[in-house]
């Protein structure tokens, strides 16, 4: 049967052909090349759409597929959990070691990237249940285009970047390099240069693999283990809550800011945006966003971004007005 498929990385939907197998749903482009294989046990229905990880599929006859999905069962017959556990087992051993703070940074550099990605994706999958991805296609395309520009040609790029529907004012980088921008932050930003600064800072964390060490410090080895084996239903709230309190070290923050300055300069984006972001965040009470958590001196950080500005340089706009409006509205407008 025919359908439309959005892989969640680039927010464009493709026309696809869908085949339902015994245990696996195969999604192929119209030229026959396979785009994704979804184990039926992992597919969730959301209205007219079907979800697996952060990808979305809509088809002409959703009832037909719905009937063939296994009944949801939380604890049994989930082969992916075993796969995730096996993939992550070496990482778990290292993670126990990670709990010893002086070795955290050293160990984080030696966890295999595939294990870190498996862990981050499990966490991401759980988080998306609480904070659904905002899927406005023009906004998604604008976000990806801005991210690519800020990242430049460096091979170490974010795994994916998305806006998720949470009222909190924050941005989070997960282990493995997924960057989540929370809708509450997007609502508070007035210019795309402010968002470019946030992206540049988070890309700094991705390149340094700060999130792995920070997540262990935040939620502990036991909680991470539960997330990796997929039985995290009871601790999702706790984990997501703890991630909001991610504590990067002062050095992590200083280094991420330094990377952000270099990236913005190379991308020809005015660093005044990030200075304005820090000034805005400073005024927010309650939940302290990640970028401020371990570094209360945000006015000094704003000043560093202002000092980097070159007088008389005509910076290129981070996004055009239509792209910015699409991005601001991609969760369905302000709530
Ligand atoms: Zn940070």
TrEMBL record:
Domain of life: Bacteria
Molecular function GO labels: metal ion binding; metalloendopeptidase activity
Keywords for this protein: Hydrolase, Membrane, Metal-binding, Metalloprotease, Protease, Transmembrane, Transmembrane helix, Zinc
Cofactor: binding details: Binds 1 zinc ion per subunit.
Peptidase M48 domain sequence ranges: 158-304
CDD domains, per the entry: M48C_Oma1_like (cd07332)
Membrane-spanning segments: 80-100
Xref: PANTHER family: METALLOENDOPEPTIDASE OMA1, METALLOENDOPEPTIDASE OMA1, MITOCHONDRIAL
The name this protein goes by in its record: Peptidase M48 domain-containing protein
Origin species: Magnetospirillum moscoviense
